[in-house]
Specification:
By secondary structure, the protein is of the alpha+beta class. It contains four helices and 14 strands. A six-stranded antiparallel β-barrel has the order 1-10-13-12-11-14. Strands 2-9-7-4 form a four-stranded antiparallel β-sheet, with no helix packed on it. Strand 11 and strand 12 form a beta hairpin. Helix 1 packs across helix 4 and helix 2 packs antiparallel against helix 3. The longest helix has 65 residues. The protein is elongated and about 180 Å long. The mean pLDDT is 83. InterPro entries: MdtA-like_BSH, MFP. It comes from Plastoroseomonas hellenica. This is HlyD family secretion protein.
Length: 379
């Protein structure tokens, strides 16, 4: 039987050094895990638990759907889809010949009403002159009556005393009666002239009312004429153009839309009700767009006064039927911070929003920065 061969020096050295190496590797791995857990726990305690995020967020902006306010044919398209426009810039022009003719007709009606007012005022002036003339006739008739009374009295006394003829007495008496009748006629004519003045003044008021109506019709006609040119209500980007040259459009028919520029857009993030405990306006927000992963900075502007469900078309009524509790979401409006390039924004894009709800929003947020802050605090 052969005797066992002793191990070589290399084998003996390997068997004695292998267990320490494994032990060192285990210790290193365990230490790394402990450090990662420690730093991770420190980051979560200092930063992570204050970060509220949601992917239920979207870019929003005011979009004006421009429609025709009058009936007409599309005469000219002045912009193309996706073209940048300025406030007040013409976008679409409708045929204006019919509306210009209506404006001219309204202007003629206003001129006619003005002429009617001038005529009535002239008649009033003429009537006042007639009243003055009638008053003068009354004064003249009154003087003639006084003279006739004096003559009739004098000649009547002479006839009774025998110094005058009866014929003269009767003649002067007749003159007296004619003078009294003339005075009564003059007074009646003056009263008739005065009675005509309120009639003319009422006609003047009617003419002024017609002028006001004609002026309103002219203003309406000018407005309708201006509506043949559809303008941009604000600076933005034109889109969704449905108008075509020659098409007949009706009032209320959508023709084109104008969206606000990216600089005036905002983000609406729908956070769960459990995430709103520490959230308030002014807190910083990090926005990550799904389109290209662009990252922007923002600020919490306001929180909606009610949950999104209550603003829906059919709000829930939990007092009826079977009740199932569902975590509600509250819309939070986020304004973009100035000094950024928001050209990548488009209304409707999906965004991931993360709100920093810490008391000190300027505190470090990174993993290593939080660890450094913890070490510095420990010192």
């Amino acid at each position: 039987m052969n005797a066992p061969t002793p191990n070589s020096p290399a084998e003996t050295l390997g068997s004695t050094t292998a267990p320490p190496r494994r032990r060192f590797l285990r210790i290193a791995i365990l230490l790394a895990v402990v450090l990662i857990l420690a730093f991770g726990g420190n980051w979560w305690f200092r930063v992570g638990r204050y970060m509220e995020s949601t992917d239920n967020a979207y870019v929003q902006g005011d979009i004006a759907q421009l429609s025709a306010r009058i009936e007409g044919d599309v005469a000219e398209l002045l912009v193309a889809d996706n073209q940048t426009v300025e406030a007040g810039q013409p976008l679409i022009r409708l045929e204006e010949r019919d509306w210009r003719a209506r404006r001219d007709s309204a202007a003629a009606a206003l001129a006619q009403a003005e002429a009617g007012i001038a005529t009535t005022r002239a008649q009033i002036g003429q009537q006042r002159a007639q009243i003055a003339s009638a008053d003068a006739q009354v004064t003249q008739a009154e003087a003639e009556r006084i003279r006739a009374i004096a003559d009739a009295t004098r000649y009547g006394s002479l006839a009774q005393s025998g110094f005058g003829s009866r014929e003269n007495a009767e003649r002067t008496l007749a003159d007296r009666r004619k003078a009294e009748a003339s005075e009564a006629a003059a007074r009646a004519a003056a009263d008739a002239a005065r009675a005509q003045l309120p009639v003319l003044e009422a006609q003047l008021a009617t003419a002024e009312g017609r002028r006001a109506e004609a002026a309103a019709q002219l203003s309406l006609a000018e407005n309708n004429l201006s509506y043949t040119l559809i303008r941009a209500p604000f600076a933005g980007v034109a889109g969704n153009r449905t108008a075509q040259i020659g098409a007949h459009v009706m009032p209320g028919q959508n023709l084109i839309a104008v969206a606000q520029p990216p600089s005036r857009q905002w983000v609406t993030a729908n956070f769960k009700e459990t995430q709103l405990v520490r959230m308030h306006p002014g807190q910083p927000v990090t926005l990550t767009l799904d389109a290209g992963g662009h990252e922007l900075r923002g600020t919490v502007l306001s929180l909606a006064p009610a949950t999104g469900a209550l603003f829906s078309l059919l709000p829930p009524e939990n007092a009826t039927g079977n009740f199932t509790k569902i975590v509600q979401r509250v819309p939070v409006r986020i304004a973009l911070a100035p000094g950024q390039d928001p050209s990548v924004l488009r209304p409707g894009l999906s965004v991931e929003a993360r709100v920093d709800t810490r008391d000190d929003p300027n505190a470090p947020t990174g993993f290593l920065a939080a660890a450094a802050a913890a070490i510095g605090l420990g010192r």
